[in-house]
Amino acid sequence: MRYQQAIGRVRGVIRSTVVLENDGRIAEVHVIADQDRPPKRIVRDIESLLAARFGVRIDFRKVSLVQLDPEDDAESPLRLCVGQAKMSDGQVTVVLMEGEQRYTGSSECDKETSESKVAAATAEATLQAVEQAMGGSVKLQARDAQVVGSRGDRVCLQIVQASTPRGDERLSGTCIVAQDLREAACKATLDALNRRLPAWLSDRGPSNRG
User: Fold this and answer.
1) Looking at the structure, do residues 99 and 199 belong to the same domain, yes or no?
2) Distance between CA atoms of residues 184 and 82, nearest Å
3) Rounded to an integer, what distance in angstroms lies between the CA atom of residue 57 and that of residue 47?
4) In this structure, how many other beta carbons lie within 10 angstroms of the beta carbon of residue 129?
5) How many CB atoms lie within 10 A of CB 50?
6) What is the pTM of this model?
């Protein structure tokens, strides 16, 4: 269902079910979410998404949300962090870390190019490293990269297209540019992906990563 697919992309949402009236209007929205974000913000995001994308306005009381505690004895999901993001000899190289495991990706980039192109090249290198970590089970493509101003800060925005066992997904992530644009671009790309990696891994089933 289109509503459920869209809601599934809201940050923090693990699974959702939308119940419709006979006339097609939304009667109830049931959501399972993680504990990374306050529940009110998740509900507000769902309301805003439905209004902006489908022109559907719902009362927040129609949204029931359950947040799951992390299982202490569960296997830790794949969670990647930035080890290095550097430019040398016309190439951006990104190293992602999962514990002691390293995954590397690279993309051509002229250091004299625009900030958005540097961010795009960094995203491509980051996605190569993520695909390596996932063992090739998910195909990722950088769709858009921008560096925008927001109340005195510069913010890197990355949009990523993912082809997964659940279908195609379009994801977005952001990071404030503190000092190094490449590091911010890498973190913005991971911001788009990290919350979806556990679900993609569960779809893939048991495996030996790395």
Assistant:
1) yes
2) 10
3) 7
4) 25
5) 20
6) 0.61
